[in-house]
Amino acid sequence: MAEVDLRPMSLGEVLDRTFNLYKNHFWLFVGIAALPFSLLLLVQIAFAAAGSAAAKTPVTHGPPLSAGAIGGMVGGGAVVVVLYFLMIGAAHAATVFAVSDLYLSRPVSIRGSFAKVGWKVFRILAIFFLFGLILLVGGVVLGMLFFVVTPPYGILLIGLGFPLLMVPLIILLCRMAVSIPAAMLEDLGAVRAIERSVHLTKGHVMQIFVIFLLVVVATYVAILVLQMPLLILMMASAAAHKTPSFGLQVLQQLAAFVSQVLVGPIGTIAFSLMYYNLRVRKEAFDIQHLMASMTTNPEPNAPSAA
């Protein structure tokens, strides 16, 4: 596409092109995000319906829940959690492929973007797991600072240690920001994709942190506008010792669905463009792509080699 050319971009240009892509191809990105999350929405509505039906059932002093029933509940919750991360991974991966096709002036569609994902979605789950593991280790270290050192020195150490611990974690997460585009577009495993991201983002942590910050702000704005009124109504019902109605629960799930669909693609688009921007800056990707396209599509009047 004409508005997406291969050249180094400043942070402002990356953000400008992010919102231009999102605006000009709104239904493409919303459709990609809505397709996997709609399945999750149906599961959530089914759970809400089951909970409402159970709340209306008269309470009887029957036998306690069996181990099988408890295991079924735990297993159902685990299935929902795995499904949630699978849907997020599929949406991220398909969005990365859609941005890549637009950036390189190739045909793009919702179906084609998801067709390129396939089993690669499990690489994204592995990347999510490594992200969570890093955060968990940081939390454990912080907890050890709190419980091992006796007060009042423990509180003082927490006050000093929390920012000292958070800054390296934030820097590390920024260095891992283009792991998913690297995994998808270069067909890398989770660990190799993270190593690739760390290499590409060297010297650009502040720019990536600004993108993270803008995505977080946009997410919280969407939550405040779309979900907060319904959450207040549900909290009021809980305070009155009443179970929220099925309709209210469905509305809350729909509001969460709309906020995820509207805001979710923005960060993925920005980091996908930043991935290409870093490759252009550090690896002359623009020249590589130009040479590859000339080799693939030679000029019709070009003289042939003897």
Q: Can you offer a commentary on this structure?
A:
The chain is an all-alpha fold and 306 residues long. Helix content is 79%, strand content 0%. It has helices at residues 11-24, 26-56, 67-103, 110-115, 121-148, 153-175, 179-185, 190-200, 205-239, 246-283, 285-296. Helix 2 (26-56) runs antiparallel to helix 10 (246-283) and helix 9 (205-239) runs antiparallel to helix 10 (246-283). The longest helix is centred in the C-terminal third of the chain and has 38 residues, at 246-283. The relative contact order is 0.13.
Give the topology.
Layout: H1 11-24, H2 26-56, H3 67-103, H4 110-115, H5 121-148, H6 153-175, H7 179-185, H8 190-200, H9 205-239, H10 246-283, H11 285-296
Helix pairs in contact: 1-10, 2-3, 2-10, 3-5, 3-7, 3-10, 5-6, 5-8, 6-9, 7-8, 9-10
Task: Determine the mean pLDDT.
Answer: 78
Outline, from the CA principal axes?
Answer: globular
Unreliable residue stretches = 298-306
- Rg, Å, rounded: 24 Å
The helix content, as a percent range, equals over 70%
Structural key phrases:
mainly alpha, 306 residues, 11 helices, single chain, 79% helix
Describe the structure concisely for a colleague.
With 306 residues, this protein is mainly alpha-helical. 79% of the residues lie in helices and 0% in strands. Helix 5 (121-148) packs antiparallel against helix 6, helix 7 crosses helix 8 and helix 9 runs antiparallel to helix 10.
